[in-house]
Design a protein that fits this description.
about 150 residues
């Protein structure tokens, strides 16, 4: 079984949602812990706080990319590839979920898979795609923005 899937099960059993799991995994890869960031990611869960809108895994993935490429302090500038990396993730996610689930909205996914059986795969694949995008752009997922 995939190590990331086992991590997902560990975190899901502790009550974390899709967006939070992706953020926790990114922080753990860096050897970090940030309860405030994890708590704020909870607002992205189940399509933005249970609204059924855009899947929380996509929102968590975009947040993960921002953790590496976004602006976080007054003296930082976004990574020049940040917008392109985000667009790549969004495009990939749309193709993946449109084909497998009939849409990228949480409600689309849960209409087709009301037992949440697809959610784990979506989270694992989205996290993996984020790592692929970061690595292809010279960013090490184990090293944070400021090394």
């Amino acid at each position: 079984m995939n190590e990331i899937f086992l991590d997902l099960l560990r975190l899901k059993s502790k009550g974390y949602c899709c967006a939070q799991i992706i953020i926790i995994l990114a922080l753990e890869a860096q050897g970090k812990n940030n309860p405030d960031l994890v708590r704020s990611a909870g607002g992205l869960c189940f399509g933005i706080n249970w609204s059924g809108e855009v899947c929380g895994a996509l929102l968590g993935g975009v947040s993960l990319l921002a953790l590496y490429g976004g602006k976080g302090t007054d003296d930082e500038t976004p990574d020049p590839d940040y917008q392109r990396m985000t667009a790549e993730l969004v495009d990939w996610f749309g193709v993946f979920t449109d084909e497998a689930c009939g849409g990228r909205r949480c409600s689309d996914i849960l209409d087709k898979f009301p037992d949440h059986s697809m959610c784990g795969r979506i989270v694992v694949d989205t996290y993996g795609k984020c790592h692929e995008i970061l690595q292809r752009n010279g960013l090490d997922p184990a090293v944070g923005r400021n090394g």
